[in-house]
Amino acid sequence: MAFRACGKSTLVGLFCVWLLWRNPDLRVLVLSADLALAEKMVRNVKRILEKHPLTRHLKPKQSDQWGSDRFTIRRNLELRDPSMLAKSITTNLTGTRADVIICDDVEVPRTSNNVEKREVLRERLMELDYILTPDGMQLYVGTPHCFHTIYGEEPRRELGEEQIFLDGFARLVIPVLNDAGKSVWPERFSQEKIQDILKRTGPAHFRSQMMCEPAHISDGYFNADQLVLYKGDLIYREAGGEAVLAVDGRRMVSASAWWDPSFGREVEGKRRDRSVVAIVYTDEDGEYWLHHLAQIKVKEGAGDEATQQCEQICELVKRFHLPSLRVETNGIGKFLPSILRKELSYAGLACQVFEENSSRSKDQRILEALDAPLAARAVHVHASVFHTPFIGEFEDWSPDKSGGHDDYLDAVAGAVAHAPMRIRRIYVDRRRAKWQGGAGSLPQKAKSDFEV
């Protein structure tokens, strides 16, 4: 990783020439976000091979071996793959083999500006293990274009990463400014020039592209710094005839759960919406506690999908002491509330099911529900939520930007928007105490056989 316009690709092109000069039988694959960028490196290598006195003899006699996106030099082995091949990271690479793979700017805004694109990019890059020969080498060249970059030095726990994406790679990072704040290339990037770049691009882009530090540069409306992280568990207890539900040492007085159902099947290779449940509590100060987010999944051959999902909802109702749950009835949700009520009855759970038909736009619902609480830093988020796609959707979301999934974010907005509801017991057995206190406490008997 090195700052923009420092000649990274040019140097890597020279490196490829040097490799082919040492071993003409090598196969080099150049991958970029765009085919045109990969072809640019191939053309650069071709020009050097043609002109340098040590490599002129490697140029093949046949013109068809000297193309713009691939070429094959004079070599000893008869191999199916060319000496150098340019490809886009989005193209089909099945059947290709390479001894050296150069990933030149595979992460750009077009491949990393939302959660789904970052997931696809990682999937495509992991396929390179099946293309690279056992003793081969991979080289990544570029700069980070998002906070959840493939070049990160620390695993992104909120994405479920246990190790960094490029684990085991040797790292070379060259920012435009050294530790003393001086330019590392003053002849081309003077202090005045650097300050001019900073003013024109802004601090986030400058950190990302010139200092090689992962930063949020996609102009998302929300920022993770607005969320208050906590790790405490949900605690329910009864003492002295009173029930108390507490989260991280704070007593909760209401709860709200929102279910945005979906069967999540793939249609024509495209993933549909996910079935997501968000559970939010409210404390005595009116602050919100996003305690749990769950994607409801079904198993093939384990019964009908609707019943499977409702059974999982019942488990969540029982586990988190939910007095009510709202089901978005747009789409498949129209017939689910009746099935859910039946399953709740079978489980002996007294949980009200409300049907919600969303007529307003999703962007408007998200903005109205979350904007003010986030500004007041009144939204607490459990650490487990950071291991779901919610954080990525949260940081990428913008009311004027379409595309990408926002199912988790939409479910949270629905739960927050309907949060102020005092909680009553979820079990049919009314003798147990209610944890919200007040009139829900256990009844008390007083001795009345006295004389006046």
Indicate the low-confidence ranges by residue numbers. 266-270
Q: What is Rg?
A: 29 Å
Number of strands: 16
What is the count of helical runs? 11
Number of domains: 2
The largest sheet is:
9 strands, mixed
Helical content stands at: 25-40%
CATH topology value of the largest domain: Nucleotidyltransferase, domain 5
CATH class of the largest domain: Alpha Beta
Topology summary:
Layout: H1 8-22, E1 28-32, H2 35-51, E2 70-71, E3 84-88, E4 98-104, H3 109-112, H4 115-126, E5 132-141, H5 191-201, H6 203-209, E6 228-230, E7 234-239, E8 242-247, E9 250-260, E10 266-267, E11 270-271, E12 276-283, E13 288-295, H7 305-319, E14 324-328, H8 336-347, E15 352-356, H9 362-375, E16 379-382, H10 390-396, H11 407-417
Parallel strand pairs: 1-3, 1-4, 4-5, 6-16, 9-14, 13-16, 14-15
Antiparallel strand pairs: 2-3, 7-8, 8-9, 9-12, 10-11, 12-13
Helix pairs in contact: 1-2, 5-6, 7-8, 9-11
Structural overview:
The chain has 2 domains: 8-209, Rossmann fold (3-Layer(aba) Sandwich); 224-438, Nucleotidyltransferase, domain 5 (2-Layer Sandwich), CATH 3.30.420. Helix 5 (191-201) packs across helix 6 (203-209). The chain is elongated. The strands form 3 sheets. Strands 6, 7, 8, 9, 12, 13, 14, 15 and 16 form a 9-stranded mixed sheet that branches. A 5-stranded mixed sheet has the order 2-3-1-4-5, covered by helices on one side. The chain is built from 11 helices and 16 strands. A hairpin with a 4-residue loop joins strand 12 (276-283) and strand 13 (288-295). It has 452 residues and is an alpha/beta fold.
